[in-house]
Amino acid sequence: MVLSEDQVLDWCDRLYLTVEPESRIIRSLWPAQPPAFCDVLREYTARCWEIAGVVLTSLARLLGLHEGRFVVMMDEGVAMTHARFNYYPRCDAPSRTSSSA
Q1: How far apart are CA 22 and CA 82, in angstroms?
Q2: Nearest-angstrom CA–CA distance, 30 and 24
Q3: pLDDT tens-digit map of 40-56
Q4: How far is residue 26 CA from its own chain's centroid?
Q5: Cα(30)–Cα(39) distance, rounded to whole angstroms?
Q6: By the 8 A CB rule, do 22 and 96 touch?
Q7: Separation between Cα atoms, residue 19 and residue 44, nearest integer Å
């Protein structure tokens, strides 16, 4: 919302999606294009969870805890996964944005 001519603008478009748990996903907010978007995001999320499992298991082991101490917190319904996508379109007045370099 622009309130004045001198206002510094946050020049960024964002897409913020809930990816997991399945029960919290609002599919109508997900883009229809590109066609493979949903499948690619699901695959990416699954691989991130695999890495998180390895890291959390290793961390528990290093701390002298049961290996599953932190991994159980990743169960369905307890942990949520979100994806955020940023797009910075060209700005005609970059000196008026908070994102300019």
Answers
A1: 11
A2: 13
A3: 999 999 999 999 999 99
A4: 15
A5: 12
A6: no
A7: 11
